[in-house]
Amino acid sequence: MIHLSIFLAFIGQLVSADQQQRLALSSASSDFSQRLYQKVALNESNIVYSPYSIHSLLTMTSLGARGDTAAEMKNVLSITSLGESVHSLYRETIQQLNSQTDVQLLTGNAIFINPSYPIVPEFIQETANEYFALTDHFEFSANEGPEKTINDYVEVKTGHMVKDVLEPDTIDNYTVMLLVNTLFFNGTWNSPFNETETRKQDFQTPGGAVKQVDMMSGYQIETNIKTDDVNKVDVAEIAFKGKRFALYIALPQEVDGITDLEILLQKAGKVDELFTDLKTENVEMAIPKFKIETKIELDDFLIDMGMVQAFSFELADFSGLSQEAQVYISRVIHKAVIEVQESGTVAAAATAAKISGRKKLLSFIADHPFLFFLRDKETGQVIFQGKFSG
What we know:
single chain, serine-type endopeptidase inhibitor activity, five-stranded antiparallel sheet, 390 residues, alpha+beta, elongated, Serpin_sf_2
C-alpha cells in the first residue's frame, strides 16, 4: 500500500507539472498578446486579431532560428523559460483544439516552399512532427500567380471568412518560403439570444458621439459575472455550448473608461484577473451584434517589440531553416474576422510569415577605386587598361 501511495503521488506530480507547463504556454501567449495590443490597437476604434495564430506561427518559425536571432524571438514571444518543450506543448494544444465537439474549432499549419532554395530537412520534419505542418511548393506558373493557391487554401481552411490574405506579387524570386497558420471557430451560445429582441439602441462612442447599433438583448440570462469596483470594470462571461469556450466582455464602469482599462491591462497579471472570481447570476444583458474584420502588417510592431535580427537580411540567423541561403523574415501578415450574432459567434484568422533571402554567393561589390583591364583571352593581349576612382 505504501508503494502504491508513492506511485500515485508521483503520477500526481507529473500531472501537476504538465498542467503548469500548459499554463506557462498560455501565460506566454497572453503576455505577448497584451504587449502586441499596445502596439496595434490603441489608435483603432475596432480591431480583432488572434493571439494564438500569431504566437503559434512565430514559435513554429523559431524552430529554424539560431543564436541571437533565436534568443530575440523567444524573448519577444515570452517562451525562453519553456525551452524546447514549447513545441511539444503546441503539439498538444493543436490536438486538443482540433478534437472539440461542442464547438467547431479547426487550426492548421502549412509551409509553401520555393523549389529553387534548399531547405534543411530537419526543419520540415520538426514542423510536421510538432505543428502538423503540411508542405507544398509555390506554383509560379499558376494563371493568377502563386498567391492564388495559398489564398484558396486559407479561404477553405477558415470557412471562407478570410479571403485574399496575400496581395498579388507578394511572392517573388527572393521568397524562400511562406509559413501559414489558419484558425476557424464556430460556436453556438449555451443560451442563444432571441432574434426578435434585437433592436436599434444608442451606443456611446469614445469621442462622445452617440450612434445606433443592433443590440441583442436577454432577460434573466444565467451567466458568470463580476463587478470590480477597484479596477472599475464589469466582466461578463457568455458561454458557448459545452461551456469550455466563452466570450468575455470587459466593460469599463465609466463611459469614457476604455483608455484607463487599456493602461491597466499593461500591468502583469491584470488580464488574467479579468477571468477570476466571477459568480453565476441571472442578469439582464444587452450586447451589440457586430462584425469586425482586420488586416495587420506586423513587421514594424514585432521589430519595435525587440524581434530585430529576425527581420534583418544582414543579421538574421535562420541556419536551422536553410544553410545555403541567407534568409530572414521579410513580412508577417495577419488577417482576422469575428461575427457575433444571436445564435453564437463565428471567427477566423490567418497568419503568414514570408521568409525571403538569397543564396549565399561570393561577394564582389566594386564600391571603391579599382583598376580595369580589357583583355583578349585568346592572345593574352591587354587592349585597354585603366583606373576608376568614382
